[in-house]
Amino acid sequence: MTAALDQLPQTLVAQAFHYSPRGMALVSIEGTILQANPMICSILGLSDSEIINKSFQEFMPEDDFFVLREF
Questions:
Q1: What is the pLDDT of residue 68?
Q2: Which residues constitute the domain of residue 26?
């Protein structure tokens, strides 16, 4: 799958991220949000500047933290 993504033009990938009807964020290995698309901003009711550089855990319900223990 990585090879297929490497063949796509970068602008196509960026547009798919930006215009997706699904809320998405790019998250670092440490859990820091690096980029957020407009839909996730709309879902959270926040601007991207209010989301970027925060931990994704800040936006998770505490009841879902058990999922993180599995990784």
A1: 74
A2: 2-59
